Amino acid sequence: EVQLVESGGGLVQPGGSLRLSCSASGFTFSSSGMHWVRQAPGKGLEHASAISGDGGTTYYPDSVKGRFTISRDNSKNTLYLQMSSLRPEDTAVYYCVRRSLAAIYWGQGTLVTVSS
Amino acid sequence: EIVMTQSPATLSVSPGDGATLSCRASQSVSSNLAWYQQKPGQAPRLLIYGASTRATGIPARFSGSGSGTEFTLTISSLQSEDFAIYYCHQYNNWPWTFGQGTKVEIK
Predict the structure, then answer these.
(1) Residue B13 pLDDT more than 90?
(2) A107 contacts B46? CB cut-off 8 A
(3) What percent of chain B is predicted at pLDDT more than 70?
(4) B43/A109 Cβ within 8 A
(5) Of A39, B54, B62, B86, which one has the greatest count of Cβ atoms within 10 A?
(6) Among A61, A59, A111, A65, which residue's Cα sits nearest to residue A84?
(7) Which residue in chain B is spatially nearest to A44 when comparing CA positions?
(8) Which of A37, A44, A61 is closest, CB to CB, to B100?
(9) How far is A85 from chain B (nearest CA, A)?
(10) What's B42's DSSP letter?
(11) Residues in chain A with pLDDT values less than 50
């Protein structure tokens, strides 16, 4: 059974940093591209970052480019999102997502709140 | 970036009636299109992937169709638990993009 479990969310002041983690199980992690999708309160879904299975290809939208860094440790089956220079508009639930040929799997999400 | 446009924004439906939700892509996404249901405080729940394949455990009253740029989610007979927000999602290209959502509410 595929499981994605996010952690690391919390309250942080504007300008601060936070690292999210996603622990994966139930599939061959190193062969799978991974994604972070975020959802601000009461808003829609936004593709926040992505990384290929070997870590060689990454994606960031302009809204987070230069502030967020996605990475992975295939030996630990863990995906990360390092967030810095956080802004109030980064407040959202962050979901770890994996696409396979058979389905698209989502974690339960972790809430990041940027506020003073 | 591919823009996904859903219509209508809100759909008022009586329990037991059917509902048709639309999603249009600004360029072809082949059949790489998913539909989700989301309720307050919950993660999106995958209903349909590959434009027309029901995910595991999804009731047969949910069906998806379309390819290229035009897609439809049909709910044949709405149950009380079906009132929620529905999103379409293209995963043909990075960045993934999502529709803005259709809220299905009780009439």
Answers:
(1) yes
(2) no
(3) 100
(4) yes
(5) B86
(6) A65
(7) B100
(8) A44
(9) 22
(10) S
(11) none
